[in-house]
Amino acid sequence: MQPKLSxxxxxKFQLILVTSDGADDLKAFFAKYPMPIxxxxxxxxxxxxxxxxxxxxSDFLINEKGVIDSSFVGWDNNRxxxxxxxxxx
Length: 89
Known about the structure:
The protein has about 90 residues and is an alpha+beta fold. About 35% of the residues lie in helices and about 20% in strands.
């Protein structure tokens, strides 16, 4: 997904990582693997509850109106194909 991120951001796509991981762990990870994304720390799991996340990772494609258009559970190396289709709608 990372190689496509710049192209997607040009189309007004934003990737937001929601995580319950600690800030220090995230700093170490992103120091090693820098990515231009926003991170929402969710230590209490409040956001995960709101979106009814049961499995990690879970991806949500939310349109400009704030409505979930698509969601995916688990990791798939072909996910970027799904993202490209969604962005071209």
